[in-house]
Specification:
By secondary structure, this protein is mainly α. The chain has twelve helices and two strands, in the order ααααββαααααααα. Strands 1-2 form a two-stranded antiparallel sheet. It starts with a helix and ends with a helix.
Amino acid sequence: MTAADVAPFLFDVVGSMAIFVLAVLGLGVIASMMGIFNFAHGEFLLLGAYTVYLAHEAGLPTWVGMIAAPFVVALIALGLERTIIRRFYATPVAAMISTFAIGLVLRESVRLLLGGQFYSVEAPLIGAFFIGDVALSKWRVVIILMTVIVLAASYLFLSRSTLGLYVRASLENPGLARASAIPTSRVYAGTFAFGAALAGLAGGLMVPIYSLNADIGVPFLIKSFLAVMVGGVGSFEGSVLGASFIGAGAAGLPWAIKPVVADVLLFLVAILFVKYRPTGLLSLWRK
């Protein structure tokens, strides 16, 4: 096997990891910082993709829709958090069920608007970079670079900024945070909107790769939950590790075995890992 044979495989794996990290990051932030699983995460991805589609249909450049997507989805999520989700924080199970119901309404609403059809949106950058005989998709390269930038910015925001300190304090000890005059209600709302914005960005960036349809977020939701569990609930770094693991498996296994078998095998490996290492991948490095 030559370098020209291996390079496309590695690029495909890295590109898939980047997409999964973007898709999982928002879910991981909400699950880790707020202690609830957002079952509407896949639909926030869908709304980001749908925003890009609407901009494209309005005759605007695709990149305008991609810039608008995280802000549009964050505003929608903020409205949902203020009116519905915040009422269930005391009962996390009820909060998760409410997000499932919200996701169902959002998905079926978009399905109605799309008429059940599939639509494609052209990437702002088309073509490929060539390194020798190896062709690298320009848009996938952009997604990889964007993922690195978003990861670094999110980590610095959550670990170094005053707002990030408020978020961590509100999660670890809400009572003490309130006694310290931290507005925990606003912090929860901001965290939920931030996680949804990341999902919107992921949906906006991936829509040129995956055809837009009402179910575009469903496969990512299922694998995102798996990634958060594998990485370890409760940490930003764990979500990134889990997403990288699932993304690499989702892209790498179909090169060796049939895609359907690869999905089943990936789920089995992940479930076994969670069973025998429930604290996640991050615990392996923290020993």
